[in-house]
Amino acid sequence: MKRRVILTRSRRDVNGKTESSQSGAWGSRARRQTPGIMASFLEQGKPQRTKTDRVRTGVSAVFRSGRLGVGYNHADSTGPRPALWGSAQGPYHKKSSSLCCATMWWSSSSSIIHEQNVGGVHISFAPTGDGCPDCCTSSTKADPGDLLTSLKRNQQRLSDDESRGHELSLFCVPKHYEEDLDSVIIPSGLIRDRCTSSSSILTLDTITSAERLMNESYSSTAASPNVLRTGPEKPRELKELRVSLRRLQLIALEPNEKPAPPLPLYNHLLLTEIRFSTRASVSRGDRKCVVSDRKCITSELNLQPSSSTVPPAMELRSEFKQKTERLARDIVRDMGGHHMVALCVLKGGYKFFADLMDFIKTLNQNSEHSSVPLSVDFIRLKSYSNDQSTNCVKVIGGDELSALTGKNVLIVEDIVETGRTMETLLKLLHEYQPKMVKVVSLLVKRTPRSSGYRPDYIGFEVPDKFLVGYALDYNEYFRDLSDLEETITVSFGLRRRQHLHPPCTGGGGGRGVI
Ligand SMILES: O=P(O)(O)OC[C@H]1O[C@H](OP(=O)(O)OP(=O)(O)O)[C@H](O)[C@@H]1O
Ligand SMILES: Nc1nc2[nH]cnc2c(=O)[nH]1
């Protein structure tokens, strides 16, 4: 990747006109961007590039098919061992390593106990001592064994670091899920969110720290978690502090910048833009120097996924399939050859139901012993408006439930959030005295709003975000998306759960209000 840099005067002299003209434009822009003391360095800048021990810290970002990676390099005084870094696991890996980074986070432990790939982003899970204040529910917060996810690069392990990573919104997984981490799915929207916020924090922190370090005596041991000194222990020998940071398109548009195009909603397979690449270097040797580059790099790259790469959507889809197949096997095994009525909870459950039934049918066909005679039934329950539960579960259609009396019933649901829908249905079914009732849900949301209800079979546990796609809707939109996506709040002007609906008071269609 070509890099445009604000060139120092001496470099300009060497390289002549072309670079000189580049530097003018970028220089003035950087002056606008660079706050405080860094801006004044620019004004006075007569940079001399000295060979020094450098600290390098960075935030880099890539949008790909709605999925985002953030990279963050970190070195500390103990040597070349980076404390934190990321890498690309996606299709653009080979094009430019600096563009291809995955999400990664601090880890207070280097023992990675599980790894998985979500939409091209490689995620590792490592135990941590603290609950994450951001995404753990109060009950899981108290759990000392919460897991945080972190990403790794080239099979290397994340090394120790402070638990400050929590402030950057880690993905946390409750301890009780430790045994079944391959069931945990992190929606791409969440990855994007977390990366955006952490990038923003890192950017600010990095600049602030650079300024502070320039102002402080080098003998001070103070260092930001994002800017650590490296090299010789003797502080005076540190001649240059180098800070490299890249910012995400969505978070840091300067006033004069063209607004970024919105993220494509439907087109999962297209890469969106990569806009920011800002780099700042503060030199103590010649006193004052800032080097900064900033541009839209999308145009320089062919960002379309190449045909040889597996689109992330496909990966996610295949994860769903694998999970569904596993659930089908478990169900067939547990049913022990007894007849079963599979009750699909419409509308959200229809895709999962169809896939699950296909797998059970296939298992039945291929099995000599434990095939399960199967019939299907449908019920329609509705309680959500926008992205909020109305607290009022209405039964608005379906077959006669009396047909379920004395039967083994498998309720097939797409998602359990508060658990209200399922508790209502179970109560209703009870009146018809089925022989046995089991519930399978593709997704269970980790949310403090949960009543604590847990289905018998669970596909994935998902964070507290509103999901659409794979038959899950937002006001009937997006059911047709093949993959799960988090709703993009900005695009829809949604504000999550600001207006809670009043409790159900009556009325309703079909079988009426429960
Ligand atoms: O655990 P809960 O908080 O009760 O939420 C889960 C229910 O919410 C959704 O249904 P929705 O009311 O959106 O109807 P739909 O299936 O037609 O989309 C989903 O399909 C579940 O049935
Ligand atoms: N579409 C959709 N419906 C839900 N019902 C409960 N949670 C959800 C969710 O995240 N998405």
Report on the structure:
One of its GO terms (cellular component) is cytosol. Residues 319-474 form the Phosphoribosyltransferase domain. One of its GO terms (molecular function) is nucleotide binding. The chain is of the alpha+beta class. It has a domain at 315-462: Rossmann fold (3-Layer(aba) Sandwich). The chain is built from nine helices and 19 strands. It has helices at 9-15, 17-33, 36-44, 138-141, 188-215, 312-335, 350-366, 420-430, 489-492, and strands at residues 60-64, 67-71, 74-76, 79-84, 114-118, 121-127, 147-150, 172-173, 240-245, 278-283, 340-346, 374-385, 388-398, 408-416, 436-445, 457-462, 467-468, 485-486, 512-513. The strands form six sheets. Strands 16-15-14-11-12-13-19 form a seven-stranded mixed β-sheet, with helices on both faces. A four-stranded antiparallel β-sheet has the order 5-6-7-8. A two-stranded antiparallel ribbon has the order 1-2. Strand 14, helix 8 and strand 15 form a beta-alpha-beta unit. Helix 6 crosses helix 7 (350-366). 1-O-pyrophosphono-5-O-phosphono-alpha-D-ribofuranose binds at residues 345, 347-348, 381-384, 389, 413-421, 473.
Summarize the structure.
The protein is an alpha+beta fold.
